[in-house]
Amino acid sequence: MVELARRLFVSSAEYLEGEKTAKIRHEYVDGVMRAMAGGSKAHNLIALNLARVLHGHLSNTPCRVFSSDVKVNVAWDWRERFYYPDVVVGCEAGDTDPYVVEQPKLVVEVLSDSTERDDRSDKFYAYRRLPSLEEYVLVAQDTLRVEVYRRETGWDLEVYAALDAGIELRSVGLTLTALDVYEGLPELLKVAMPGSDQS
């Protein structure tokens, strides 16, 4: 049994090297690699919408916006994690690893049935250990709901669930709308598309 555990354990160095050529992305949790499932079109659209708006807002600043192909590293005590958040913003000049954000300021995860439990528990617990992280955002893909957790409020939850709500991302000085987040998903916005029959 001990020998089996040794064979299943992967060092972080082995993991990072393997991810450079892997056909399937994996997250890394304390020596164990977990394959990542593909996302839905709605999931992808929401992540792209957020990355696009953040990128435009943060142009000509030291901050950079990365999508789901860039890892975030969290390490404490004997634990080490590498996650692929849907969107991450890093602003530190010393954060120079070409594949990993070590000091994220903002992390966004788009919820899905297969990831929601982990996004709300283990990942949230790990991300909060990063001193640089100011906000953690969870976005539903099957209903209009954006949850923002902020370090400055002790990680209390703030929910935005109205079409006209101004969604504050204080970490980057940006206020979004539901349209910014859910563009391309009119069924969630509950608005008629231009030219559609409104009767």
Subunit arrangement of the protein: single chain
Approximate helicity band: 25-40%
CATH topology of the domain at 39-70 and 84-189: tt1808, chain A
Q: Mind telling me the CATH class of the domain at 39-70 and 84-189?
A: Alpha Beta
- Identify the CATH architecture of the domain at 39-70 and 84-189: Alpha-Beta Complex
The number of helical runs is 7
The neighbouring-strand order within the major sheet is: 3-6-8-9-10-11
- The rounded Rg comes to 18 Å
Q: Which parts are unreliable, with pLDDT below 50 for 5 consecutive residues or more?
A: 1-6, 192-199
The mean pLDDT is: 90
Question: How many angstroms separate the termini?
Answer: 67 Å
- What's the β-strand tally? 13
Please, could you describe this protein's structure?
- By secondary structure, the chain is an alpha+beta fold.
- Helices cover 27% and strands 28% of the residues.
- The protein has a domain at 39-70 and 84-189: tt1808, chain A (Alpha-Beta Complex), CATH 3.90.1570.10.
- The chain has seven helices and 13 strands.
- A hairpin with a 2-residue loop joins strand 4 and strand 5.
- The protein starts with a helix and ends in a 10-residue tail after the last helix.
